[in-house]
Amino acid sequence: MLRQFSVQGLCVKGIFTTFACEKERRATRTSHLNHQQRMKRVLHLLFISLFALTFTSCENKEKQADKLTEEFMRKNLNDPRSYQLVERGRVDSLFSEFRATNEAQYMLDKVKQITDSAARYSESVKTVPQAQKMLADGQRILEEYKKKQKKFKSQFLGYAFKVSFRAKNEHGALVRSYVVFRLNPEMDKLSIEDADMNIFSIFASDAINDNMNKY
């Protein structure tokens, strides 16, 4: 009887041990699930906050672009009362690029000169070696250009957007035109980045000279 009780005791102990292990596993799973749920809530809140900030930023810059565009037109058109907005394009961020620097332009001009000269020299068998040397020099300049382009540190320049509109020209005729504006990083000043030829008849000449992009 004692031996049987001992066996039963072991069985009972085994049952309690199994129950305790299962209880611990359930607790671990529950803790893990709770942690996952908390992480999901945090990520969800972060996503909502990021979306709200982005939306607010976009909304602010677009409102500012519309406000400054209206002020610019009223101030600089020959006939401000004739101004009719057709469409304002998306306000995009603008960053500096190596290809727009004076150094990049010089290097590309140099390559073009070399290419033109090499083309002339390659027309004669006697001067082919000179043409090959020129092309090798041009290739070295292009390789250097690529290296500088990779190392170039881009800077935020502001925003750019296109405005299509109608306004009366100096003869009183209503014409359609467009202007690409640059909005500075502080979002308080516009300059003309690009436009069609109609602007010379619908804007005052001083307005164009004073507001063309200088950088």
Describe this entry's structure for a reader.
It is built from five helices and five strands; from the N terminus they run αββααβββαα. The protein has 215 residues and is α+β, with helices and mostly antiparallel strands. The chain folds into three domains: 18-55; 59-95 and 155-210; 108-151. Strands 1, 2, 3, 4 and 5 form a five-stranded antiparallel beta sheet that branches. α2 packs antiparallel against α3. The relative contact order is 0.11. Residues 1-12 and 42-57 have low confidence and may be disordered.
Looking at this protein, list some descriptive labels:
single chain, 215 residues, alpha+beta, five-stranded antiparallel β-sheet, 60% helix, 18% strand
Structural class: alpha+beta
Helix content: 55-70%
Please give the count of helices. 5
How far apart lie the N and C ends?
102 Å
Q: Quick one: overall form?
A: flat
Order of helices and strands: HEEHHEEEHH
Mean pLDDT: 80
Radius of gyration: 35 Å
Biggest sheet character: 5 strands, antiparallel
Number of domains: 3
- Strand percent estimate: 15-25%
Number of strands: 5
Runs in which pLDDT lies below 50 for 5 or more consecutive residues are 1-12, 42-57
